[in-house]
Amino acid sequence: MAKPAIVVDNVSILFNLNSEKVDNIKEYFIKLVTRKLKYNEFWALRDVSFRVEKGERLGVLGFNGAGKSTLLKTVAGVLKPTKGTVKVSGVIAPLIELGAGFDSNYSGKENIFLYGATMGYSRKFIESKYDEIVAFSELEKFIDVPIKNYSSGMKARLGFAIATAVEPDVLILDEVLSVGDAKFRKKSEDKVMSLVDKGVTVLFVSHSTDQVRKICNKAIILKGGTVVASGEANEVCDIYEEMVNKK
User: What was the pLDDT predicted at 221?
Assistant: First the structure.
């Protein structure tokens, strides 16, 4: 039997929120050493479990603050679970905060190679994909301009173009299909569907049930950091739409 692409087993994430104002670093360290620094505990995720088989597309739905982005960052390896385990098989392309890994002082061209290197790809491989990446991002006129002069939409487009050009085993998407104008959103969606046709596993966060129905075959709903519904995408989207209407 094929190995699952993603296994999330009883994962919980605890954040300690500083409950008092600290005016400077010196005061912070004094309170830290004397154990006078007070925290409020916040469980962003509680006992979350699911598995995604290779080639499946799992949609993650939930209102703001439900823990969706925290979950994706945990699967991507950005956050370590306080409890539980996460196992991912294959190369991951996390499109969580597009452009977050860019160096603002480098040009778009330089960042293509930097971003590709952080994903584990050789310079030779990125060179073979370079023209495709630039063409998809539609940033030909700005590719030699420093990233610090890019708009957030331009950075998102370049990040999306790089991550999807390398054809990963697991694609993690956090609301990224909403970037850019309508034309670029349609192109991005078509690109994701072409990866789906090639068997890429997708973990997709969106507030749009239309997108989840189109892209995903399975879905879950997070509420207060816990899974409150899971199953076939259409059925779970129906439940989520009922939740939205009752809100």
Answer: 97
